[in-house]
């Protein structure tokens, strides 16, 4: 789909050539990644962020200050280092496998029969790219979706999201067949999380659904780097993981979020083991 599918308000108000699906939480204007400023758990445009920072601050007593908790969503400022690191690892592994004649791909890719034979493949598959097109797709998707998700959730939760999305892809393959030979399963996890993120910010969901739908159709029609089972698994687990990140506020909700994330990981591992043992 080209730019014709975008509305006029799907472009950054300060950079009209940059499409974006993120709106300022105060003025609802579209802002690109460069213009996003995270203040007190909200995504603001530069104008509103400046107004907030210039507003007078009421002094807080020391006893009150000690009782203040960090917000559940710690939105970091600065470069999306984790996204850049993932892209770098994908490139390094791809060229290492190229020079090794495909030995790395053969040893660390995941198939439906790998659960007990190569259990490490549950995690290593999310670092592989079997071809240059797969590498370009994975890297571009991390650039488009990953950077904004990292800014929203923070580096540690973003990395956990990537890992759980990749794990969801491999577990779905273990349950329903197919092959996960690349990081595309984890990439679909980022897409699922981005749907949750964009809906909360009022993004252009039709365009986002169209992008994901086109990629799912391509996976079905042109299998290879990832099967539809892996794509679906990553998509579902990524969306569910992102939903848990919005359990914020009280300590009870924080504990609930941790329990849910632990439960997601445990359920995925148990399902894969049960399937392998009864097969």
UniProtKB/TrEMBL annotation:
A Gene Ontology BP annotation from the UniProt entry: proteolysis
InterPro entries on file: Peptidase_S54_rhomboid_dom (IPR022764), Rhomboid-like_sf (IPR035952), Rhomboid_protease_S54 (IPR050925)
Predominant cellular place of this UniProt entry's protein: membrane
GO MF annotation list: serine-type endopeptidase activity
Keyword vocabulary terms for this entry: Hydrolase, Membrane, Protease, Transmembrane, Transmembrane helix
Membrane-crossing segments per the record: 84-108, 120-146, 158-175, 181-198, 205-222, 228-247, 259-278
Recorded topology in the membrane: Multi-pass membrane protein
Keyword Phosphoprotein listed: no
Compartmental location: Membrane
Keyword Glycoprotein: no
Gene3D superfamilies: Rhomboid-like (1.20.1540.10)
All copies of domain Peptidase S54 rhomboid, residue ranges: 119-245
One GO CC term on file: membrane
Family statement drawn from the similarity comment of this UniProt entry: Belongs to the peptidase S54 family.
Protein's name in the database: Rhomboid family intramembrane serine protease
Species in which this protein is naturally found: Galbitalea soli
């Amino acid at each position: 789909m080209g730019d014709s599918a975008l509305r006029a308000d799907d472009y950054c108000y300060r950079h009209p050539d940059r499409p974006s699906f993120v709106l300022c939480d105060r003025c609802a204007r579209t802002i690109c990644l460069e213009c996003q400023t995270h203040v007190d758990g909200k995504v603001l445009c530069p104008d509103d962020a400046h107004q907030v920072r210039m507003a007078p601050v009421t002094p807080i007593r020391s006893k009150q200050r000690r009782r203040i908790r960090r917000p559940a969503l710690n939105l970091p400022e600065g470069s999306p280092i984790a996204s850049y690191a993932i892209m770098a690892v994908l490139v390094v592994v791809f060229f290492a496998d190229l020079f090794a004649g495909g030995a790395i791909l053969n040893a660390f890719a995941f198939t439906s029969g790998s659960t007990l034979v190569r259990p490490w493949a549950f995690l290593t598959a999310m670092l592989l790219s079997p071809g240059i097109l797969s590498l370009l797709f994975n890297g571009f998707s991390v650039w488009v979706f990953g950077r904004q998700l990292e800014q929203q959730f923070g580096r540690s939760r973003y990395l956990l999201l990537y890992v759980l999305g990749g794990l969801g892809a491999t577990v779905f393959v273990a349950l329903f067949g197919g092959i996960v030979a690349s990081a595309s399963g984890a990439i679909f996890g980022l897409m699922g999380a981005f749907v949750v993120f964009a809906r909360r910010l009022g993004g252009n969901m039709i365009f986002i659904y169209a992008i994901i739908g086109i990629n799912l159709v391509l996976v079905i029609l042109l299998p290879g780097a990832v099967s539809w089972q892996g794509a679906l698994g990553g998509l579902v687990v990524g969306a569910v993981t992102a939903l848990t990140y919005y359990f914020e506020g009280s300590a009870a909700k924080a504990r609930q979020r941790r329990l849910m994330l632990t439960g997601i990981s445990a359920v995925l591992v148990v399902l894969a083991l049960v399937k392998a043992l009864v097969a």
